Amino acid sequence: MGGDVGPRVTVPAALQALASNPALKLLLVGQPDAIQPLLAQQSAELTSRVEIIPAQSVIANDAKPSAAIRQSKGTSMRTALELVKTGQAQACVSAGNTGALMGLAKLMLKSIEGIERPALMTILPNQQKGQTVVLDLGANVICSSEMLVQFAVMGSVVAEEVAKIASPRVALLNIGEEESKGLDNIREAAAILKETAAINYIGYVEGNELLTGKTDVFVCDGFSGNVTLKTMEGVIRVILSLLKSSEEKQTKPSWLMKLAKKWLKKRLMKRFEELNPDQYNGATLLGLNGIVIKSHGAANEGAFKAAIERAVQAVDRQVPDRIAARLNIVLPRSDQ
Amino acid sequence: MGGDVGPRVTVPAALQALASNPALKLLLVGQPDAIQPLLAQQSAELTSRVEIIPAQSVIANDAKPSAAIRQSKGTSMRTALELVKTGQAQACVSAGNTGALMGLAKLMLKSIEGIERPALMTILPNQQKGQTVVLDLGANVICSSEMLVQFAVMGSVVAEEVAKIASPRVALLNIGEEESKGLDNIREAAAILKETAAINYIGYVEGNELLTGKTDVFVCDGFSGNVTLKTMEGVIRVILSLLKSSEEKQTKPSWLMKLAKKWLKKRLMKRFEELNPDQYNGATLLGLNGIVIKSHGAANEGAFKAAIERAVQAVDRQVPDRIAARLNIVLPRSDQ
């Protein structure tokens, strides 16, 4: 149990997730001395669905991924992934070192056949009150056209199976809508997707369409995907802080005005909260033979609970199996 | 006079700019028949500072830049750039085809010595009530490390001369703050900037820092820069539209509540408007021997006026000369 805070956040979050889902069982991988006290005074019903799996070390958040992976034996992250590999767990949720998690997960669980490299994916709410599947968010800074096509296939499956969108629209992030725009890999991926009947490819989108719902699947390389997601988060945080400061500055409002403002602020915050990084936490590492969810390192209890729920959803919808099945239909197998 | 609408927006915007700046003179380049009627019934004082320069054709917004440039003779865009080249005008402002403008401007005005390729730059307001210089916004989808360093130099000059920031902090956009993150060109640029005493280089920033004021100069390749700016615009538009819809839905509010909401919305809108694409319009094509400002194609009168004011500011601050002078100090000359 890593992350910026460790068990003091992840254990209470786990208990919350157990309380709201009676069918859930959780294996808590980490140092028993740190976990055990946090389970004290909980109901027997909850603790009966928890098992502590001892692991004596944790991969540091600032460790270099390559070195961390070489020295990963006995760490909580590796132990958790081993549980998925051996079928003792159906999913792994981690708030730890992102690079180490991606590398170790790929090493231990292997990519689905037909997927060169896994991608980080999230599902964002959009302006149409729907959902948009966005990937890659930073697993791969350089992407070939083939990888972008694989992301499009994986995103389509998630949009159908998790977001329940029939024939989801797929678009590639670019810096203009004209065919001649952008980088070679994007134009080549566009050419392939246009010829792929099983994908509902609609063309290019620009960054301003991230939240508008113009597309159901928003495909990009990991660098641009990280930039667009982080920019979105930053702009929302700035606006939320403007809302707060605009209230603090007000001097001597009448009590009625104060009440009215409080009520309105609550309404506005509720709308913004949908897009608040604390709420939609949990990026899925997509394309592996197993389910791995990456939580923000700085996730609070509610956010880490959201990441656990993402994992449950992926298990319920059998996302890896469905991706493998779709790849068999959509993409030519390299060994045939 | 191109753009999505043409003279019907740009001429009234020009008249507004003239009215608010008694020292300004404007050459309106385009079809006299389209411009002349829009100047009727204006005061002699205003029209005495306007001259119509006839140009019989306009480059279409959707024209392919390479073809448009080949066939640019006699177009309003080329004529306007010729006026800058010959010194008859001190700056060119265009709402026309971005690719054609960049290509033609480079062809006719040439890059400043030491600049491989010009970059699109804008100045955004930030959370600290300061300003952030952001470049490249899309002129160069692929950038070498040298180009990123040149952008850093140009951005520093603009931050000092236009935004009046002493020793401006310069950062490179990346997907993490650790030195090992990102793409080769970014890491190489970081290594050069660290050794460049004349630049106050502070390291990497992520997309979420675009508006926080953590850096004064935000340097990125044109693809990522376009993605981060467009994402910002999109998120702000979505939030503004949420604010509007949250008001419409409210049924039967008391008159006091209605008043409070109106007041708060006005306050909020004022804060957001600072970041509204209609307000900060006008990207500068930086690195040329001349001043060229690109307005949004869809700019309204106020926004196009803002672009004209950007041009005036760049003229006042002698931006190209100062960039050339700084390059002589900072960067080794290739011919020495």
From TrEMBL, chains A, B:
<dbReference type="Pfam" id="PF02504">
    <property type="entry name" value="FA_synthesis"/>
</dbReference>
<keyword id="KW-0443">Lipid metabolism</keyword>
<dbReference type="GO" id="GO:0008654">
    <property type="term" value="P:phospholipid biosynthetic process"/>
</dbReference>
<comment type="pathway">
    <text>Lipid metabolism; phospholipid metabolism.</text>
</comment>
<dbReference type="GO" id="GO:0043811">
    <property type="term" value="F:phosphate:acyl-[acyl carrier protein] acyltransferase activity"/>
</dbReference>
<dbReference type="GO" id="GO:0006633">
    <property type="term" value="P:fatty acid biosynthetic process"/>
</dbReference>
<dbReference type="InterPro" id="IPR003664">
    <property type="entry name" value="FA_synthesis"/>
</dbReference>
<keyword id="KW-0444">Lipid biosynthesis</keyword>
<comment type="function">
    <text>Catalyzes the reversible formation of acyl-phosphate (acyl-PO(4)) from acyl-[acyl-carrier-protein] (acyl-ACP). This enzyme utilizes acyl-ACP as fatty acyl donor, but not acyl-CoA.</text>
</comment>
<keyword id="KW-0808">Transferase</keyword>
<dbReference type="GO" id="GO:0005737">
    <property type="term" value="C:cytoplasm"/>
</dbReference>
<keyword id="KW-0012">Acyltransferase</keyword>
<keyword id="KW-1208">Phospholipid metabolism</keyword>
<keyword id="KW-0963">Cytoplasm</keyword>
<comment type="similarity">
    <text>Belongs to the PlsX family.</text>
</comment>
<comment type="subunit">
    <text>Homodimer. Probably interacts with PlsY.</text>
</comment>
<dbReference type="InterPro" id="IPR012281">
    <property type="entry name" value="Phospholipid_synth_PlsX-like"/>
</dbReference>
<protein>
    <recommendedName>
        <fullName>Phosphate acyltransferase</fullName>
        <ecNumber>2.3.1.274</ecNumber>
    </recommendedName>
</protein>
<keyword id="KW-0594">Phospholipid biosynthesis</keyword>
